[in-house]
Design brief:
Length: 235
C-alpha cells in the first residue's frame, strides 16, 4: 500500500498527525510505503525568519495564544515538545526541497526520518528551517551526505519538482494539512487518532485485496476525489 502525506514543516497538526499515523503503522499488519509530499501553508513567508508568537498574533489576534496552548497540550500526549516561544516563522520551501532529495536519493524511510527531524527542529529546537546552513545540519544529523546537501541547497536542483508537487496538491483540491492519500484514491484530512488511521489502513487493504481478486471485471475508477472528513473515510 502507498500513502502520500501532504504536509508542511511549519504545521503543528502535521507533527501530531505524523506521530499518530506512525502509531497506526506499528499496529498494522501489512507493508506500507509512506511518502511525504509538500504543502505550504504560507507560501509567501519571507526568507528572513521572525518570532512565531508575533507572527501568529498578527494573523489571528488574541486567540493565537490559546491556539498554541491547545496544540502544546495535545502534543504532550504524543511525546512532542512544542516550544512556541522559541519557534520561528520561516519559509519552508527549502525544507521541502530537502525532503524531495531524501526521497529521490535515499528512499521513503530516510525521507520519513528527515521529516521527523525537521518538525522537531522547527517546533522544539527553534531552528530556522528556512536557513541553508541550519537545514544542512539537520539533514546531516538525519543521515544525508553533507557535501551533497550543501551543493543541492546552493543551487536550484529539485525546485521545479517541488513546485510541480505543490501544484498537484492544489489540483487535487487539498486546502488543509495534513492530508493522507491512500493508494492515490482515498483521502483522510487532519491529525486523526491512531485508531482512526488504523481503521482506514485496514479498510483500504481490504478494498484493494477485494479488487485484486475480482480483477477480471475491471478495476475501479481513480479520480482522487474520495475525501474523508471528521475522521470517517468513505472507502
Amino acid at each position: 500500500m502507498k500513502v502520500e502525506i501532504y504536509s508542511d514543516i511549519a504545521c503543528p497538526w502535521c507533527y501530531i498527525g505524523k506521530r499518530r499515523f506512525d502509531q497506526a503503522l506499528a499496529r498494522f499488519d501489512g507493508e506500507v510505503e509512506v511518502v511525504y509530499r509538500p504543502y505550504q501553508l504560507v507560501p509567501d513567508a519571507p526568507a528572513t525568519a521572525s518570532p512565531h508568537r508575533a507572527w501568529l498574533a498578527e494573523r489571528y489576534g488574541p486567540q493565537s495564544r490559546a491556539m498554541d496552548d491547545r496544540v502544546t497540550e495535545l502534543g504532550r500526549a504524543e511525546e512532542i515538545t512544542f516550544d512556541f516561544d522559541a519557534a520561528l516563522h520561516a519559509n519552508t520551501f527549502l525544507g521541502h526541497r530537502l525532503l524531495h532529495l531524501a526521497e529521490a536519493e535515499y528512499g521513503p524511510a530516510a525521507q520519513g526520518a528527515l521529516k521527523e527531524a525537521l518538525l522537531k527542529a522547527h517546533f522544539t529546537d527553534g531552528v530556522d528551517v528556512g536557513d541553508r546552513a541550519a537545514l544542512t545540519e539537520v539533514a546531516v544529523a538525519a543521515g544525508l551526505d553533507r557535501q551533497r546537501v550543501t551543493e543541492y541547497l546552493a543551487g536550484e536542483e529539485g525546485a521545479d519538482e517541488v513546485r510541480h508537487q505543490l501544484d498537484t496538491a492544489r489540483q487535487l483540491g487539498i486546502s488543509a494539512v495534513p492530508t493522507f492519500v491512500f493508494e492515490g484514491r482515498w483521502a483522510v484530512q487532519g491529525g486523526q487518532e491512531a485508531d482512526t488511521f488504523l481503521q482506514v489502513l485496514n479498510q483500504v487493504a481490504a478494498e484493494t485485496t477485494a479488487e485484486a481478486a475480482a480483477s477480471e471485471v475491471g478495476s475501479a475508477d481513480v479520480d482522487g476525489t474520495g475525501a474523508c472528513a471528521d475522521g470517517s473515510c468513505a472507502v
